[in-house]
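Duplicate of #3305? Posting structure anyway:
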């Protein structure tokens, strides 16, 4: 008799829930009984929810019951693999840019969030609250994102919270929310429902839709420094390689007073004299 049959299955499930994914993969090769437990949906459901906690784009997914994923053995393991593969994707496509809510900051100025930058599907970039008009955006051959004649932005994904980011020597874009995981799992659900011959109306919700106009209050507490040190050297190298490109541009941005930060020691004195209608002009010179 195989050893997995000598004890109640609940005991093995409780034990396997405490194992890491590599150990589970190894145990799945030991015997047929071990493979059954190593593929168990309840075990991978437990592992997945713990892994996804606090990751950007996963809150809605974690809160749903996902009865569909319990319909077939091994489904939760497949879902876990799909999410892990997507979490390692660093290159961006047009959907990522257009369907993501972005926050923006200058790398060298004490302003954590400015305006609402948006990339539109027709190749137009707008930045409400900071600039009027439109700028063109496009992808470079290397997969970076260029806005007008500014230095191209190198995309990457945060390993801490799975947010999307883009950075050049001057600025950093970071996602407040994105649909990457929801879109992947929506497509997976469609195929699974068809494979099982189930009624899609009972298991498939509407496709995920992008959400814009998130206020600056929703980004409080976000780590501004996540993964940026690893990208800074790459960006400096990129700038050196692009010295011959025409990237010089001068801009004047008028920011409302609530976007300007003062030293703590001067707060009490300055606030009394400051009018609500006061504005500060910041001259930004992006010169090679």
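Output from current build:
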């Amino acid at each position: 008799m195989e050893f997995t049959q000598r004890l109640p299955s609940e005991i093995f499930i409780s034990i396997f829930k405490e194992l890491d994914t590599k150990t589970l993969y190894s145990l799945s090769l030991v015997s047929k009984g071990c493979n059954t437990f190593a593929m168990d949906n309840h075990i991978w459901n437990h592992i997945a929810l713990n892994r996804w906690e606090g990751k950007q784009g996963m809150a809605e997914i974690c809160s749903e019951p996902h009865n569909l994923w319990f319909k077939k053995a091994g489904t939760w393991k497949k879902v876990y693999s799909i999410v892990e593969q997507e979490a390692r994707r660093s290159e961006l496509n047009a959907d990522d840019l257009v369907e993501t809510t972005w926050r923006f900051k200058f790398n060298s100025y004490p302003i954590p969030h400015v305006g609402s930058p948006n990339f539109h599907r027709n190749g137009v970039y707008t930045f409400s609250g900071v600039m009027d008009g439109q700028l063109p955006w496009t992808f470079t051959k290397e997969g970076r994102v260029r806005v007008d004649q500014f230095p191209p932005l190198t995309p990457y994904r945060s390993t801490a919270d799975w947010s999307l980011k883009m950075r050049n020597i001057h600025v950093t874009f970071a996602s407040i929310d994105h649909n990457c995981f929801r879109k992947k799992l929506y497509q997976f659900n469609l195929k699974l429902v068809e494979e099982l011959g189930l009624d899609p109306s009972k298991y498939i919700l509407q496709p995920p839709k992008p959400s814009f106009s998130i206020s600056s209050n929703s980004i409080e507490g976000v780590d501004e420094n996540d993964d940026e040190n690893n990208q800074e050297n790459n960006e400096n190298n990129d700038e050196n390689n692009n010295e011959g490109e025409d990237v010089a541009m001068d801009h004047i941005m008028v920011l409302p007073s609530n976007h300007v930060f003062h030293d703590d020691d001067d707060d009490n004195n300055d606030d009394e004299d400051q009018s609500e209608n006061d504005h500060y002009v910041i001259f930004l010179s992006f010169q090679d």
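Confirmed duplicate; merging threads. Strands lie at 101-106, 116-119, 124-128, 135-139, 145-147, 154-157, 164-167, 171-177, 249-256, 279-286. The chain has eleven helices and ten strands.
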